[in-house]
Amino acid sequence: MTNDQKDPLFVLVKSLSKSEKRQFKVYVGRLGVNTDSKFLALFNYLDKNDTIDEQVIIKKGIVKKQQLSNLKAHLYKQILISLRLNPVHQNVRFQIREQLDFATILYHKGLYKQSLKILEKAKTIAKENEENNIAYEIVEFEKIIETQYITRSINTRADELSIEAKTLSMKNVLTSRLSNLSLQLYGLMLKTGYVKNDIEHKEITDYFNTKLPAYQWEMLGFREKLWLYKAHLWYSFMVQDFLSCYKYSKKWVELFDEYPKMIKLNPVFYLRGNYYLLESLYLIKDREQLKRVLGKLEENINSKKFPIDDNVDALAFLYTYNNKLNLHFLEGSFEEGLMLVDPILVQLKKYKNRLDDHHIMVLYYKIGCLYFGSGNNKMCIEYLKKIIHNKSLKMREDLMCFSRVLSLVAHYEAGLDYHLETQLKETYKFLIKMNDLHEVQKEMIKFLRKLGDIFPHQIKEEFRGLHKRLKKFEEHPYEKRAFLYLDILSWLESNIQSRPVGEIIREKAKGLIR
């Protein structure tokens, strides 16, 4: 028995739509069923079953044990070929690559002039769509042909190709350096979250300034600007400059307004730009603009012009629902937000093979916060357990830390304080290990630790004292991040005033200056 979700062939077959399955069978028919009956029989078995059992496959006589591995590899390849032929999966990049393949065939047949004609057409399309890597590949191929077949129609042909190659090479190097910086910053962001002190702030700032390549603005095209905005965005997130996050995510989205045809070619980048714009609006608490941008994004996604595939569909779900949850947090409408939980769980099951652990855990944390805000602390604890017990090394450390702190608070609120001392010790050890013990967390742990010694009539005074001590950290450059994960101050105020936390947050939301 294999692990179904880790078997690439099984996952691929289960990802196929009805039309893709139908096309695959038509494609196999073109190859000749007699010669390919084994891999078609294997395909039909995988299609009809919810698990993959290699012993059953062998017993059914589909293939011998020694041949199973080769047959699976052959079927995997044939499915990919079939998908490549599907118009749904074809775009400008496919068209350019196809033309390059045709030109290569003509070149090997010695039909140089025909090959050059196709290459020129492909190069024009590549440049128009800023596919500079493949444009450079085409120019290099043209140079090879020109050394063997001199057209003599243009005396300066060699010089033109050399200049063209140099320009494309410079653009590609710049794009590569910017994309490397962006990716490295994003990796750091996922691993450690926000900077925690002046030392880390200086380290990441020096890293950013050292790695940021020099450039001339007039040299930048769509892709160079895109990676430049991304790099600035990740840096801004890490140093908690949320106004700059808004600035660069807005530039990212406006770039697609300037180059609308790039949405069709790069729908994932378009979605991600909108996601970070929405996230930035949440962090600066601009509720009305968040509503507008989210509404516009959903309208565009549902438009017939918007390119949808399996990957885009999963990301569209992830980004829209994340920000629907954020909107409920800003409004304090926790009970209403619970209506999103079931649809989210249904979609998570649907997209389980396309979403990584990090994004799933973020959704779990937000669902936990919804339950906490609505007063259902036991359900809050259940969702936080999914994060706390996750052993993935890729899990964002700050999310793990605040999940543990919120879990402590939820246990107290739920009256489940019989294991509180043990959890306090475990959380304290975890925070020390992660080097993530800050003043807000210290104050929370100290408060929870001494709760057992406080008389009931003293409790509100203790809440007031904690509120006063934490309030001074609300705008602290490094401590304020605690309030991004859990509105501790509103929770304290709800206990002090004996009112629901959602009511407190709603009142605060009404007082926000637009």
Considering the chains and any ligands shown, give keywords for the structure.
27 helices; about 525 residues
Structural overview:
The protein is mainly alpha-helical and 514 residues long. 73% of the residues lie in helices and 0% in strands. The protein contains 27 helices and no strands. It has helices spanning 8-15, 18-31, 37-48, 54-59, 65-85, 92-108, 112-128, 132-146, 157-192, 198-211, 222-238, 242-258, 261-265, 267-283, 287-301, 310-331, 334-337, 341-350, 357-373, 377-388, 397-413, 420-433, 439-449, 459-471, 482-485, 488-497, 501-510. Helix 6 (92-108) runs antiparallel to helix 7 and helix 24 (459-471) packs antiparallel against helix 26. The longest helix is centred in the middle third of the chain and has 36 residues, at 157-192. The radius of gyration is 28 Å and the shape is globular. The mean pLDDT is 84.
Series of secondary-structure elements, N-terminal to C-terminal: HHHHHHHHHHHHHHHHHHHHHHHHHHH
In DSSP terms, counting alpha (H) and pi (I) runs of 4 or more, how many helices?
A: 27
What coarse outline follows from CA principal-axis ratios? Answer: globular
Helix content: over 70%
Q: pLDDT below 50 for ≥5 consecutive residues: which ranges?
A: none
Write down the Rg.
28 Å
Identify the quaternary structure here: single chain
Instruction: Give the tally of β-strands.
Output: 0
pLDDT averaged over residues: 84
The main sheet comes to:
none
Distance between the termini: 59 Å
Q: Assess the beta-strand content as a share of residues.
A: under 5%
Q: Structural class of the secondary structure composition?
A: mainly alpha
